[in-house]
Each structure stands twice: as C-alpha cells, then as structure tokens.
Amino acid sequence: MCDTTTVIDDDRHPHTHTTPPEHHHKFPRTAYTPSHETLVTSVENAYNEVRTSRFYTNCMAALHTVQTCLQEALSSDWALSNIRCMVVYGLGSLSGYQGLNSRYQLALSLLLRQCLHGLLHPPEAYDPVFTDIDGDVLQQLDVHVIPTNEKGRRVVTEPTLFYLPHCEAELTDALLEANWREGQLLNVIIIGMRGGYGFVCGICGLWNL
C-alpha cells in the first residue's frame, strides 16, 4: 500500500527560511509594532517568494501523493477538491521581529488555499498569541480567526486540512483523539512539523488500514 505519510525535507521551507538581507533589520528587536499596511505588504512579499520556491513545489508534490494514496486505498476518485475546510493552528503572531517566520507560514497557508478548490468557507486560524493587529491582517486576507482556544479538539465530519506549523505534539494528539472513531479519521489531513527539520503530510485514517 502507498505510504500515507509524505515527508518534505527542504532547507528553504518557511519555518527555517533564511531571511533575505533586505529583511534582517526591517523589524528591530524592540517594542515597535509594524503597521497594518506594513504587515500586509510583508505577507504579500512572502507569498510571492514562497510561490517560486523549491519547497512549495515539493509541498504540492506531497499533496498530490496524498491524493494518489487516498485514491488507491479507497478505490475512489478522491481529489484535493474534496477538502471542504482548512484550519491553521499555531501560526504565531505576525507582529514584531519574531513575526517573520509567521508571515512566511501565513503565505504558505494562502498558497495552500489556492489549490483547495472545494473549500466551503475561508480558512480558519487560531493562536493564543494573536494580537488585534494580527486579527485585522488575517481578516483582510480572508482568514477567519477562531474566537476560542479549541486546544486542537475539533471534531470534523468532512475532509479538513489542518496546517500545524508551530504546534507541539500534544495538540496533534488532541486532534487525533477527538476524531478517533471508525471512518472519521479519513477526514483529518495534517501538514505539520517533523522534529523541526521538515514537514510531514498525511491522511490520518489510512495509518491504521
């Protein structure tokens, strides 16, 4: 059977992205908070950079591998367009000097959204460190901020892509536990970190087939 977990190892993925020289001092390590307009522009620049990166090419290849695995395992024509919801946990704050990684992660989230043509709603995101300005930027980019901390315990009844860029294993465990019933795990598709060195993409319901 096709392996349902695809690892994407690339030293240019957004989490360990080497900051371009022109960005090194853009947001100094002070209490300075960039403006709404500056953050939106930064995300747009990151979007264009990630879109042309080798990592993004590998990420798309991994998603299509997931699609093939589902088609083989279920003997069906399952496609990425079957994904109805997208949830991002652990994005981090977009503001301040530590926000550069988060802006690249958000850029990748927006790119992932573009290839999920079956989404019924805008992507949803939550991180307890979100600020008011983060919420305003996400709203402008058509990403809905989840109002309460679900602690990963979201029960899904339709195919849902979870993007977990900066999450601890406990949150992934909580997500799996909440959906640990026959047939339901097939609705849980996760893209997340693997030991801090790469991304892993998998369909949870196939791990036990």
What does this structure look like?
The protein is an alpha/beta fold and 209 residues long. It contains 5 helices and 7 strands; from the N terminus they run βααβαβαββαββ. The protein has one domain. 34% of the residues lie in helices and 14% in strands. α1 (36-51) packs across α3 (99-114) and α1 crosses α4. The N and C termini lie close together (9 Å). Residues 9-30 have low confidence and may be disordered.
How do you describe this structure in short?
With 209 residues, the chain is of the alpha/beta class. It contains five helices and seven strands. Helix 1 packs across helix 4.
Fraction of residues in β-strands: 5-15%
Distance between the termini: 9 Å
Rg for CA atoms: 17 Å
SSE order = EHHEHEHEEHEE
Helix-strand makeup class:
alpha/beta
Number of E-state strands = 7
Helix count from the secondary structure assignment: 5
List keywords for this structure.
209 residues, alpha/beta, 7-stranded mixed β-sheet, 7 strands
Task: Describe the secondary structure blueprint for this structure.
Blueprint: E1 5-8, H1 36-51, H2 54-74, E2 85-89, H3 99-114, E3 124-126, H4 132-140, E4 144-145, E5 160-164, H5 169-178, E6 188-193, E7 199-203
Parallel strand pairs: 2-3, 2-5, 3-4, 5-6
Antiparallel strand pairs: 1-7, 6-7
